[in-house]
UniProtKB/TrEMBL annotation:
This is Carboxymethylenebutenolidase homolog. It comes from Atlantisia rogersi (Inaccessible Island rail). Pfam families: DLH. SUPFAM superfamilies: alpha/beta-Hydrolases. Belongs to the dienelactone hydrolase family. It is found in: Cytoplasm, Cytosol. GO terms for molecular function: hydrolase activity. Keywords: Cytoplasm. One of its GO terms (cellular component) is cytosol. Residues 30-245 form the Dienelactone hydrolase domain. Its main location: cytoplasm.
Amino acid sequence: MANESRPCPCGIGDRFEYEGCGQEVRVEHIKAYVCKPPASTDRAVVVIHDIFGWQLPNTRYMADMLTAHGYIAICPDFFVGQEAWKPSNDWASFDDWLKTRNAGKIDKEVDVVLKYLREQCGAKKIGVIGFCWGGAAVQHLMLKNPHLKTGVSLYGVIRFFDNRSSLLHPTFFIFAEKDEHIPLEQVTLLEQKLKQNCKVDYEVKIYPGQTHGFVHRRREDINPQDKPFIEEGRKDMINWLNKYL
């Protein structure tokens, strides 16, 4: 099988056995997972899923972690009902699958979600985080959407938006040193372009020895040596959001 000879790099790492603390809601034409902290807050974070979709337990775990730190967290279905990628799919068909799921064409859904957060949840300061496909979507939103305050792009696919670097909002980029999907040369080029063109605060950080998806798709007990970097990535993400929200 093609998957065995050339596995999808996004499939590295285990899925959590995790139920989630929030609830599924419908926001106009979009389904979404929402989790709210017990105390009232006007800070919210939109969580943009990877290619495995909005129902991936790992992503919901991250949304719940944000809520544990005092944020309203919402993970909408940015594929809008289209089927998420499955680890069993033939990786050779990935490019065709991706053509109908453009990380740069989620603006309509984002506007709906922001309206919901403001009107139904009382959010006034809203940030965004995203993983892989969602990380690229974060970069798109940081380049375009004036209503967000900040973003964290976790191993976002650089090649989707590699020709644009004039960010509107402070953005933190998390990359893995051994990411087969995002070569370090691309990260270096991104840094150069940001240095030349970006007028807001940004940071690009590479985590040693890590592979694609390490912050939300790697289980600490599988590779104990990775645990400090997983924890560091999550802490860095929270600290960035705390600083700008």
